[in-house]
Specification:
Jelly Rolls; Arc Repressor Mutant, subunit A; 2 domains; four-stranded antiparallel sheet; 9 helices
């Protein structure tokens, strides 16, 4: 396990440029945790004393509004970190984290990670890049919310998913993560009924193919046209 963990960390952006000896020291600070599907990792408002790096699986980051509606902020996969905001700021968790698949993550304690950041300019720089990426994702969310109609919102989410989780399907680009209609609705900030209706319309227009919660993008140009 130590060698496997070290090999994994070597490919993670935060530690990619570290010398081998430094990476050995870093790897010793991590433990590995496994989570079942639909496991809550942490909740908004809880104490944030751990940082997670996904080794395998998909994690949903979300916030719940006062009226109970859920807005999904991000779907994260292998190599991505989460929980960094409260670990770096000593604030409580600003969102919820839940697995959408069986997930394995490398975990480090707050004090250990803060020590790494203080000692390593390389890690500090990569943390800044990660935070910039989070801001970019937030900006994308704001732009999606500003889209004029529900059709444009779902089309934009599908294009984003194909970019982040895309793979080759039989007839087009397959989205490499299985999502329920409710999970897609939470990403777009829409009701499930509206999302289901629009997905069926996209299928009828031959823009996408749906099968067993798998989404295959058949015509990106059509989706892009609806977003514009």
């Amino acid at each position: 396990m130590p060698d496997e963990l070290k090999e994994f960390l070597k490919g993670v952006l935060l530690f990619r440029d570290l010398p081998a000896k430094e990476l050995d020291k870093v790897a010793k600070l991590f433990t590995v945790k496994e989570f079942p599907k639909y496991q809550v990792v942490f909740q908004e408002g809880s104490v944030g004393d751990l940082l997670y790096i996904i080794q395998a699986g998909v994690v949903k980051i979300s916030k719940e509004a006062a009226d109970g509606r859920v807005k999904t902020l991000a779907l994260l996969s292998a190599g991505e970190i989460f929980g960094e905001m409260s670990v770096l700021s000593d604030e409580t968790r600003s969102a919820n984290a839940e697995t959408l698949t069986e997930t394995k993550a490398a975990v480090i304690k707050r004090e250990d990670f803060q020590g790494l950041v203080e000692k390593s300019p390389t890690i500090s720089l990569h943390i800044i890049r990660t935070l910039i990426d989070r801001l970019y994702q937030a900006d994308r969310q704001i732009k999606n919310l500003a889209l004029g109609n529900s059709r444009a919102k779902i089309a934009d989410i599908l294009l984003q998913l194909s970019q982040e989780f895309g793979g080759e399907g039989e007839d087009g680009a397959k989205v490499g993560v299985r999502l329920t209609h409710q999970e897609l609705a939470d990403l777009a900030g829409l009701a499930r009924e509206t999302t289901t209706k629009l997905l069926n319309e996209f299928v009828k227009d031959e823009a996408i193919l749906l099968k067993d919660r798998e989404i295959e993008i058949l015509n990106k140009a059509k989706l892009q046209q609806w977003v514009m």
